[in-house]
Amino acid sequence: MATPRVVVLGSSFAGLTTARFLRARLGDRVEIVVVDRNATLTFVPNIQMEVLADRDPLESMLLETPRIHAKDGNTFLQAEVLAVDPEARRVEVVPSDRPGGAVEAIGYDYLVVALGNRLAYDRIEGFGEHGDTVSSGYYGNRLRRRLAEYRGGPVAIGSARFHQGTDQKPDWLPVGLAACEGPPLELGLAMAHWLEEHRLGDAHKVTLFTPAHVIAEDAGEPIVEQFLAMAKEKGFGYLNDTVDVARLTAEGVEFESGASLEAEIKIVLPDWVPHAFLVDLPISDERGFVVTDRSMRNPRHPEVFAVGDAAALTVPKLGGLGHQQAEIVARELARELGVEPDDGTPVEYRPEILCFGDIGGHQGFYIHSDLWYGGRTAVFKMGYAPYAMKLAFKEMYFRTGGKPPAFGVPATHLLMDHLPG
C-alpha cells in the first residue's frame, strides 16, 4: 500500500511541534509535508523582553525551520496556502519566497491545519499610524523607536474584541471576549518597571483595558482578583467593558462603549481572524475556525485535524494549548495507522491555562489554572523563578528544534506549583 501522506499547514509553534511529534511516533510509516509561507519561526512570547531591553528581536527571536524538517525527513514547502478542498483531499499553494509563482495542488490522506490566524490590526482604525504591539519583529522594532522618542505621556495597553465562533461550540468551552490577555498583563507590569528604570514615571502612567467584564477572564476569578488588587495597589489605571476598540488617534484610544483614554503610547492586541480560505468550508464554524472534537478531529472529515490558534477549541489563543493538541494528534494517528496499540482509552483535549510573563527587573509571573473550564486548579505566583522559566523555555525550544521533552509540562507544574512565590 502507498505510504499515507500527512500534510501539516503551518510551521510555527503548533505546526512545527505537531510535525516533530508525528515523525517521532510514526517513523517512516508516513510521508510528512509541511507548508508555511515563512522559513523561520518567530518566538513571539519573548519579543517584549527584547524590545524593552532595546534589542532587535529579529536578531535573536527567529528559528530556521527547514533544516529541522530536513533532519526529520519531512518535506518543507515555503508556500502560501490558497485553498483547502476537504472533499477532494487537497490543498492549493503558491510559492512565497518570490512573487509570481504558479499555483500547485497537493493531495493528502490526513491534513493538520496549524496555520494560526490573521492578527487583524488592519481592522483597527488608526493603528497603522498610532498603534503599537509586540506580535512580530517589525512591530517590536517600531515600538522600540516609539519608546526612544517617548515624551512621558500616558500609556494604554489592552485588547480589541475577539470574535469567537459559536457554531458547534461544546458546552464546556466558554466564550472569550479577548483572544489572549496574558500579553497585556505582561506588558503592563513590564512597562511600569521600564518607566521607573528610565525615571519617566511608574504604574500610575499605565492604564490596562479590556473588552470583557474583567481582564484575563480565562485565568479564573480568584487569580484575576489577586492581580487587580496588586495592580490597584501599584497605581495602574483599569478600564473594563470597553466592548471593542473603535479607533486610535494621536491623542489616545476611543472605544465602542463610548469611553476613551488619553495615551501617548497605545499598545493593542487585536482580533484573531481565521484565514479567508477557511471561511465557509464544511470543516469550519461560522467564523472560519476549524471545528474539532476533543481528539482534535473534524467530525465531518475525520481525516482533518486542527491544532493551535486555527482550532475552534483553542480559546484563549495560547501556545501551551497547541502543544497539548499536537501530542493528541500524533497519538491519534499512531493508533489509527497501527504503529501503537489502541487500548480504547480516549485521548482527549483537557485545556488548562499555563502562562509565564516577564514583569521587568528579572522577575515574572506564573499562572496555572483550569477554573475557566470547570476545573479546580488556580496558581498565581510572582518572582524570579517564573522569569527564569520563561527564558529557559525559549532556550529549550530553540535547542530541541521545537520538540520539548515529554516531561516538560509535568515538571513545570511540579516545580512552579509548589515553589514559594
Automatic annotation (TrEMBL):
GO MF annotation list: oxidoreductase activity
FAD/NAD(P)-binding domain span: 5-131
UniProt cross-references to InterPro entries, sorted A to Z: FAD/NAD-bd_sf, FAD/NAD-binding_dom, SQRD
Pfam family, one: Pyr_redox_2
Alphabetic keyword roster: Oxidoreductase
Enzyme Commission no: 1.6.5.-
Keyword Oxidoreductase attached: yes
PANTHER family: FAD-DEPENDENT PYRIDINE NUCLEOTIDE-DISULPHIDE OXIDOREDUCTASE, PTHR43755
Name of the protein in its database record: NAD(P)/FAD-dependent oxidoreductase
